[in-house]
Specification:
The structure is a homodimer. The first copy, chain A, contains one helix and eight strands. By secondary structure, chain A is mainly β. Chain A has a six-stranded antiparallel beta barrel. In chain A, strand 4 and strand 5 form a beta hairpin. The longest helix of chain A is centred in the last third of the chain and has 13 residues. Chains A and B meet through strand 3, strand 5, strand 6, strand 8 and helix 1 of A and strand 3, strand 5, strand 6, strand 8 and helix 1 of B.
């Protein structure tokens, strides 16, 4: 297919996986920097006009995959393609971040949930939402409801 | 890093790139099927409970990359990371689709914008929107405004 290469690295407050907030209703508001390799800096032209970005990155500290697994936010197993588990056939992650500012090849962003030093594969513009009334969160909404009933 | 592998292929109405709707305000409502390889079918457990999915796929008919280019919807150049150009350092694409139904390893979806036969890399749950009042579409909104002024 193709040979993935890093376009840069994430500078985040997280040195260990255990420090990254996980679970139901978690808010990712950690700030940090996407440091793009100097050779790719021209590719950032006009990016500062956008408020939100998709960041595709490499789960570089994950090995192998499980097709079915129990996420930290539920007591039931789900298929890997219905979860954000790092143990995937292609270890690619996706995070939506808010772009706060740009300084040359450095993008200051909010909403990071990856480890410090994580290789970045791609950045894309976030341009539109799914209509809120059409969005169903399925098993995750059910897990939340069960948890509320227990509390 | 890692060696990408297809988890399945997209069955879409598009046999040629020129037939895929492009440009400002375009709506992607093409229906088709994400046909997951039988060995990965267990990874779809509970996916039918979700209304929308992220599909990561391989721009398999694109070669090389341009850091700056002029998208079909504007008369000005922009950085590749501010656009959805297929000519990217890592030729990975991202599409949000609505899940209509599941039949075993086949997901019927709406919102496809890739060629028939395109290799799929990953599927993830679409779980939340960016708050609408915080979303800025930057250069794209400016291009739309210029176009409206011309009409």
């Amino acid at each position: 297919m193709f040979t993935p290469r890093p376009i840069g690295h994430a500078r985040t407050p997280y040195k260990q996986t255990s420090k990254i907030p996980k679970g139901l209703g978690v808010k990712h508001d950690a700030e940090g920097v996407l440091e793009i390799l100097p050779e790719f800096e021209p590719g950032l032209l006009d990016i500062e006009s956008l408020s939100h970005l998709y960041v595709l990155w490499f789960f570089d500290r994950s090995e192998g995959f499980d097709l079915v697994g129990q996420p930290p936010c539920d007591d039931r197993p789900h298929g890997v393609f219905a979860t954000r588990s790092p143990r995937r056939p292609n270890p690619i992650a996706l995070t939506v971040v808010e772009l706060l500012s740009r300084d040359g090849n450095k993008l200051r962003v909010r909403g990071l949930d990856m480890l410090d030093g994580t290789p970045i594969l791609d950045i894309k513009p976030y341009l539109s939402n799914v209509p809120e009334e059409k969005l169903r969160r399925g098993w995750l909404a059910e897990a939340e409801a069960r948890k509320e009933n227990q509390e």
